[in-house]
Amino acid sequence: MTGPELMLPSCDFTVFGATGDLALRKLLPGLYERERQHQLPADTRIIGVSRSPLDDAGYRDLVTHALFDHVAEDHLEAGALHRLTSRLHHISLDAASPDDWHRLHGLLKDRPAPAEGADVVRVYYLAVASDLFGPICARLDDLGLVTPQCRVVLEKPIGSDLASSRIVNDAVGRVFDEHQIFRIDHYLGKESVQNLLVTRFANVFLEPLWSSRWIDHVQITVSETLGVSNRGEYYDRAGALRDMVQNHLLQLLCLIAMEPPTRVGGDTGDSVRDEKLKVLRALTPLTGTAVNRATVRGQYTTYGEELGHPSTTETFVALRVEIENWRWAGVPFYLRTGKRLARQESTIEVVFKEPPHAMFPHSEGTTTPNRLTVRMQPDEGMQLHLTAKHPGPGGIRLHPASLDLSYADTFDERSPEPYERLLMDVMRGIPTLFMRRDEVEAAWAWTEPILEQWRAVPIEPVRYHPGTDGPAAAARLLARDGRTWQEPS
User: Fold this and answer.
1) Which of 256, 294, 312 is nearest to 474 (CA)?
2) Taking the complete model, does pTM exceed 0.85, yes or no?
3) Fewest CB atoms less than 10 Å from the CB: which of 81, 83, 265, 359?
């Protein structure tokens, strides 16, 4: 699989925060998998930047150990490991200090042009706190390290509210044009999420059903069995609404609810992002007492023990959301996410309305609403839940059945990890799966009144026990509408 369409441009890939958890657990393993497929051109370099006092050899040892920890054993190949580690360099510097940048400047400037004469793509991946985004970009500009072929990748969170998000975006935007800025949300790199676009827009039978006329409601669930782990300090400042809803869950909602884009793909990616922005701007505002009725805040009972101090930060959020447009008027979208829950899963449930007429009044069994389930984890795939006749003579016995598409069973090839795919799109300059500035700020503008109401009415989060489905109040949020959360069978 090394055809021209799969090859990448020559690249200097610089990671700020190169010894951090994200770089060692996701970014370097993702680049390794592409190395294993021979996709990286021979002159591509990977430059790690961190405050750690490592030389090149020490960084190569660190990355090698990380690859053994985070790459599947049957994917570890001596040749690929050697090729990747030989690309690695490490620069020790404090991004907040003006010292030591001359070494990065020298390394980036001191490289021959590719044999074919094309410009080298420079990627700056900022796996650091967002308050460093602006200073790093300004320093790169001062040193003359920003060219038309540069791309900068921003990790979430971009600020902690609308005002701070604008400050960060302004600072980065003074150096890089918008088409050079790639705001990453790894959920958009999941195979099942991308397949959602294909399912919606490449299968004509679904489009006539995709509206308030036939859809009763939509549920989006992202649940985790783990706690805050080593992210406690960050998480206690952020909470579940900032950490998950403002980005991941709202992005999933946009893909479900958006209008058909003109095209998917292309150099600008704006067709998809334009439609997502329309959804964000059409969300019914949640303000004042409406927040109390439409949201649930929860916290697992051992959270304070893990932190080492009491806290009122939410580790669980459930929301009832509506979209004020022609297609979705009156259709509730229920979102929930939390830590220390019973299952590790990410799913979208599109629940259709009941048939308009009961044609089998004397049958045995019961009908259940048709559902389309999109599974992002575990076991990526889709299920279409139907009502069928149970085989046998005599009367009609109704029985729920499903058509199941498992990507692992259907496609005889490995599904790339989200970061792996997104890194390749950055190198190629394809922005479709990345967030534009106006998207990020529209999401903050909708989220911020919820945070303000929670501060104004300081009610402590509802407690729930680890290993459960979260607080009972989340179930009551749907029960008020005569609905229940769809749990895996």
Assistant:
1) 294
2) yes
3) 359
